[in-house]
## 1
Amino acid sequence: MNRQTRRTGTFIVTREHKRFVEFANTVRRNATIGLCHGRAGVGKTLSARRYAHWDRIEPLVTTWGKREDSDAKVYAASARARTLFYTAPVGGSISALRKDIQPYIMRLCICIDSHENPEWTGRHSTPLGPIELVIVDEAERLTMTGLEFLRDLFDHSDAGLILIGMPGIEKRMAQYPQLYSRIGFVHEYPSLSQDEMQFDLQRRWRKLGFGLDDADFTDARAAAAIIRLTAGNFQLLQRLFMQIERIARINEIAAITKDVVEAAAQTLVIGNAN
Ligand SMILES: Nc1ncnc2c1ncn2[C@@H]1O[C@H](COP(=O)(O)OP(=O)(O)O)[C@@H](O)[C@H]1O
Ligand SMILES: [Mg+2]
């Protein structure tokens, strides 16, 4: 499983994230299959990890070492989330996928049980036990047999399944009627809206020690340039701001102007790839 070790800064609870939470809750409540697609960098992975409390749970279920007192907190988080977040392996065969995901399922079940029923040593009657939702990220990596394996897992449990992928994944899935017929909901993860961008900019501006003043023409032009260049893409925004910060620091700049933004953008490869 891919581990997200890179620091991503503060998580912002955006409207897009709230919509994802609603979608995930619906899929789970209906124990169906949900498909979530959206352009690269809009925040799909972070939303899903957040929903699953994965930053807290992942270290334990990945290393699975000696138990510590602090694990109780992880057990509690897993019992609250009851969600497995799993990143599909690159080009994984069905046996590789099974070998890869099975330990996570088992360990997450143990975590949930440890919180709710520590004395209990019985077996679960379904392969996912107390897990109510499985979220598979980067689902376009899955081969047909990989998808088949997940469908089988889904069919033998009462859990929901969410497949996250890039735009176009919904068309690819249509080629697998066995799976496609089970899809209950399709959710498009949208780009950040204008006002969310504005809100995010304000926060970042402040962090750099500047104020973003709507009434100030220079600020407004700089903000407009950023919004245009990043087009609601969180990842680009993050990268652009790293450069703005660097340029502002090197040049001891007192305000973020449109020129600074454009200079920063030039150091990035901002294509129209997505
Ligand atoms: N809700 C959020 N709050 C703060 N930063 C975010 C948020 N969502 C995404 N980001 C930023 O955007 C980057 C890309 O997000 P990610 O979830 O990996 O996108 P996707 O999976 O859609 O390609 C993250 O690494 C992070 O820097
Ligand atoms: Mg992603």
## 2
Amino acid sequence: MQQRSIKRKIRCSGAGLHSGQDVGLVFRPAAENSGIIFHVKGAHGVRTLRPGPELVFCTSLATTLGLQEGARVSTVEHMMAAVRGLGIDNMHIDVEGCEIPIMDGSAAVFVRLLGEAGLRVQGAQRRVARIRESVRFEREGKYINAEPYDGFFVDCSISFPHPSIGAQRFCLDLTPETFPEVANARTFGFLRDVEALQKRGLALGGNLGNAVVLDEKGVLNPEGLRRPDEFVRHKILDFIGDMAMFPLPLRGKFRLHCTGHGLNNEFLRHLSARPDLWARESEGYPQRETPRLYPPPLPRAAAACAG
Ligand SMILES: [Zn+2]
């Protein structure tokens, strides 16, 4: 499998979730073996950042990449899910501000933009980090289990004691062809949490146009859900985006239960600290048959997620 970049530069802008201010974003082609490179423009000038588990700050809202004191960029996960979902290895991302626009709360706009930019197949073989031993990573009933697999397979379950959510499960064998199954699933939150955040000056750009918002009884968005299991699909989207903080695309089968940005990043840091659990390899052509995608039966007894 060869590396990919985009064919041409493309620009967009949109409101940031934290600030509510307009943020500009430019995607530019990059040479093979460059990886994904952020150029963050702020008061300090332009700083360059490369994804890495140790450069991630997790908040309850989003994944932030950057330095404690210095350049940082928030809400990278949905855009990075689009980058991985489309199989882009090399790209420059110019950010004029300190966060990625929230768009509609999913990866759909980024997929459309990158599709408009066009994908270019490059000469060099794709380098991946392949899980080579089973890993069980658990925190307070939430877990990520990883095992070797020729691809990126996610089996995710969630359980929220809420009439619109309940127990949901979805599996995805990620390829550019299957990615649309999760790409337009929106982020979700509870009205009480959104109000509390906005009182603290956070999530100022959060509204019904860029998130599914729930009160005690149901979904407040007048258009309703895009799919009944939009919640679990979004958890998979977040996982894809958060795993893109590893320097190389990961390859493995991942079983997730009630994961969030914090757990996802702890898992990546664990992999970074244990290089014996994975191998750096060139990606061969996939040997498996048609990609598998199915909503499997719900788990019998899933522990309730805390939130
Ligand atoms: Zn998300």
## 3
Amino acid sequence: MMMNKEYENEVKELSIGYFLTGGLVLAIAVLLGLLARMSQTGMFGNVPRFYYSLITLHGMAAFVGWGCFTAIGLTWYVLMKSLDSPLHSIRLAKTIYWLFVAGFVLLVISVLFGSFGGSWVFLYPISFYGYWDTWATVFWTLGVVFAGLGIIFYGVEVLLTIRQAEYSLLAALGFESFRKDFEPIENRVPLSAVPFAVIGLGMIVATVPFAGLLIYEILQALGIVERMDALLAKNILWWFGHPVVYLILFPVVGFFYYVTEKYAGRPIVGERFTKLAWALATIVQNFIGAHHLYADIAQKPWIHVWSQLGTYSIIIPSLISIFSITATIYISKFEWGVASKYMFVSLTFWLLAGMSGWVNATVSLNQHIHNTLWVVAHFHVMALLALSTMIFGMGYELLSDYVGGEINADLASKALWTYVIGAIGFTHLWFIQGLWGGIRRSYASTPDNLSLLTWLSIPFMIVAVIGIWINVYVFYSAIFKSDTLKTPTAAIA
Ligand code: HEM
Ligand SMILES: [Cu+2]
């Protein structure tokens, strides 16, 4: 293996730059979430517009500004490590950073100065019927277009990097597992690179039509075109809206493989079956978004049936991965460091979040929880306890590789428990409220019998927010203490 690779430091700094920016966005986003929940108790008076704008910005900032953005940022590091090869174009990876930043500035302006509050999914045609100005709709939509371009370029950069490392794309998408001579293949694609290839392709396929929809919406806001069929628009949105969750989940699975192999000191067990499951994900990922539209009775019934079956099938890659990671930990002399502790928590909640997701995906159960706080509970268990824990763990792994022993590992472990206890508390109060009929995105119309649970959730949210802030603090202090990286901004300039 070549020593002292020059490109390595550049990629590490780039990934750290993404992480530091995303961490700051998360620190603010969770505060907005807390304020939104507090406003539901009525403690700020009757402020529905404030609430809608808050959740809109919270959702977009936490999900895209933190989740997708840091998943992309850490991809560069893990892809480089697992392929043992430089990125195809570090300039493109930096351009993606700036596209997200530019998009994010537009989104923030739209909410802060234009009072946009159409929710982070802004389901068509809500952007045109709100309490906000038309220019706010244009800014918001344009901001999403910028992020969308960043996402398309991400897919392109991932696939080109894999090609440059001389692996076949078909093999990287999991189809290598079909080869009869699988075991003897000498240079099999490293398993930890596979999830990036799958989501890279998936995002290119899903984002192009979505970008078309966004441009249409901008033209409609400017009065150039008439309104379009709402059901069609919703299908295009969810065609993208579902797999964009995988833009966080799949990289996170890549981080899992990477960290597991490193701390177990051996390859993941069951590589062939795991790759087979990824081949399935490659095909199915782009065809199940309509499971968000079970309540749209104008939708053709076969689409509902297919969406349920397809969603069930995509549980397989998660289940196989959870199994093979756990088995690898079990049979190896596993080392427990900050990164692997975060990973273990993440693994547990990945399984649990999957179970509540299975309820959402099942038509006959979905009708009981559709648009309730159950759904909000499900995706916060996923986003906070399964995905963000692993993103933090991976961030710590990168950081310790970069700055050495200057991380306050003790504080990082305390932060983990603080945030996990807080997040378990408030998400489970949401599950109960959802089962009792509490509607999501509803300001001040939560029935009286649910308001006690809303109050109870607030201390848990405060604890979770503090846990997240401590994590971000541990990161920043490790960077500023170390003189390896002169200024964090140097990484992405
Ligand atoms: C301590 C951490 C967090 C708190 C206190 C929090 C709080 C909230 C609250 C109160 C809502 C509104 C729910 C409703 O009434 O319908 C919400 C929605 C949402 N949250 Fe969080 N959240 C946190 C973390 C996260 C994270 C890490 C993510 C994603 C990575 C996330 C993504 C979202 C999304 C996408 C929505 C939906 C927004 C919408 O309906 O437009 N949240 N959150
Ligand atoms: Cu979905």
## 4
Amino acid sequence: MIASATQHALSSDHVRDQLVARTVDCNGKRYHADGQYVLYWMQTTHRLDDNWALRAAIRTADRINRPLIIHQGLDPTYPYASARHHTFILQGARDTARDAIARGLFYQFVLRRARDDDRRVLDRLASRAYLVFTDLFPTAGVHERTMRFAQRASCRVLAIDSVCTVPSGTFERAEYAARTIRPKIAALLANAIEPVDDVPPQCGVSDAVRAMVHELTQSAVLPIATMTNDDITREVSRCAIDHDVRAVPDVAGGSVAAQSQLARFLQHTLSEYATRRNEASDPFGTSNLSAYLHYGQISSAQIVRDVLAARVSTDSETAFVNQVTTWRELSFNWCLRTPHFDTIEALPAWIQRTMAEHVNDPREWHYDRDTLERGDTHDVLWNAAQRQLVSSGLVHNYPRMLWGKTVLLWTSTYHEALSNLLYLNDKYALDGRDANSVGGIMWCLGLWDRPWGNKPIWGGIRPMVTSRAKMKFDVAAYIAQN
Ligand SMILES: Cc1cc2nc3c(=O)[nH]c(=O)nc-3n(C[C@H](O)[C@H](O)[C@H](O)COP(=O)(O)OP(=O)(O)OC[C@H]3O[C@@H](n4cnc5c(N)ncnc54)[C@H](O)[C@@H]3O)c2cc1C
């Protein structure tokens, strides 16, 4: 009894400290003293487990003894809105809705099918809230949307970081390279992954509050918890989005699928990750968790906890934790701390100098965006990676590096290369529009790297060419698969 009370006190200090490092005040406005509830606007953390915004919202709701409303919405207007992303998100929302019912939480999902549909559901909900919590996320237009909303809202809006394992607020500036952020993350990791016992809010949602929320949302709420996959497909088909980028039937969205994927990885792959991770023809050589991480359908802290608890080969454990913490959080650190993070102008001075020196170097090949998108270049390996991206929404990391680097050789300017890479990645990849998308592509342009000699077109940027890929993986098998 005493032990568990002490444990609880420790745990609650831990939660408070983590929340301080994870919270960004978006508008400095007052709390609505007469607000009827606390509102959590779920934007990018599509789960109820290990969700810091939800934890913060429950703590506030308990402190002021008011209920908690969780609201998630989906618009047709986000960048690259497509059947692929919509299906994955709706499948995720179904899991969240079912989980909310099991936990006794009030969660609602609102789908705006067309631009002209009611845009003000969130504003109306916020007008009756004491305070609004939302997710901190630097890319996919989420930050801009949050700040526009925070300006309109009359109560305080707080954005909470649930995306990084070690709170992003720990780092005050953009880190220079993986080697500079790695030891800092390692020093804080054990504390950051400490499990937290989540408790439901003390104050239930009364019938009066339910009726009020119902009136504020009008009839836009989708009965997502009971929808079948066919219902979801039908719903998606009615939305004004890009239907040419189709859903990927083999990749189910949602926290349930994410947990099964993690379990499969822990059981069958983790122990060999260090040796299998670069074999692009092996579909199970890596975790395939990036889309779930992107949509917040699984937490990176849980992944790291479970990987460390598995106690497999040290090399594999170290290699995997390095990818999911160091490299992933370096990308978030970059996007959170760098103005105009996805532009050439944001790159370090040595890269801009080398680009200025080599921008007029003759290019043997030039491919426009359409040709790249069709995967119709002279390079069969590049085309295979592009086909994998278009058909499955995921690309193995090794060919993805080659895919990104090679485009530098085929475009007139580095600006054109960057713009084409962001377009192709974000349009088709289920893990696209992420800080990792920006990080991966900017790395191809030299970010976090050092100068590597001085070659035509590459200048000092580290070269990587598809012709040498045979030394790394079974290129023929990869091309045959894609
Ligand atoms: C040009 C280019 C574009 C990229 N675009 C994206 C993107 O849009 N979204 C995305 O999540 N990743 C992107 N990456 C990084 C990497 O390719 C993917 O994270 C990885 O292939 C996902 O597969 P996995 O989940 O099986 O990875 P695993 O090897 O199982 O790794 C586990 C997790 O660690 C993180 N991770 C792994 N490799 C990297 C890396 N190199 N950089 C940062 N984090 C990493 C990811 O979150 C990944 O899910 C890109 C890399 C490049 C070179």
